[in-house]
Write a structure and sequence with these properties.
Layout: H1 9-23, H2 26-41, E1 46-50, E2 54-58, E3 62-68, E4 72-77, E5 100-105, H3 112-137
Helix pairs in contact: 1-2, 2-3
Length: 138
């Protein structure tokens, strides 16, 4: 697994807790909900705090980031273009060849089962990519 930028997964978790609390509105509630869904979908996920203030969830590489803006909470999946999305959760950054994002607006609910499937697919993609890199080096 990648080493968290802050050097301590507990520190990253604390910072994410603080971000959720400081938002103190629908964005904090939404970020808390998706965080819980991500952690439930992949119990081995590592929480990180990168790029001066972005929550990141990783497993053998970045699964997704969780950014908060005025009008949306954005979950950006690092390799989203390679992931199956039968529920059609991806609704942003669709033009790119690698990333895909889910913009969640105030009042919108996210399909927890579909998000969990995306998280698991992202972790599996990362594990396969890591195995391929390892095999290539041998």
């Amino acid at each position: 697994m990648e080493k968290p930028e802050d050097g301590d997964g507990g520190e990253a978790a604390r910072r994410i807790d603080e971000r959720i609390a400081e938002l103190a509105d629908w964005r904090g509630e939404t970020l808390a909900r998706v965080r819980a869904l991500i952690r439930a979908a992949d119990p081995e996920v590592v929480e990180e705090w990168k790029w001066r203030g972005v929550p990141v969830w990783s497993h053998d590489g970045i699964i997704c980031t969780g950014e908060s803006y005025k009008a949306v909470v954005k979950l950006t999946f690092a390799h989203g273009a390679a992931l199956p999305d039968p529920a059609g959760l991806f609704n942003a950054s669709l033009e790119g060849s690698t990333r895909r994002a889910i913009d969640i607006r105030e009042g919108e609910r996210i399909d927890g089962d579909a998000l969990a499937a995306l998280v698991r697919a992202a972790a599996a993609f990362n594990a396969a990519a890591r195995a391929a890199r390892t095999a290539k080096r041998r």
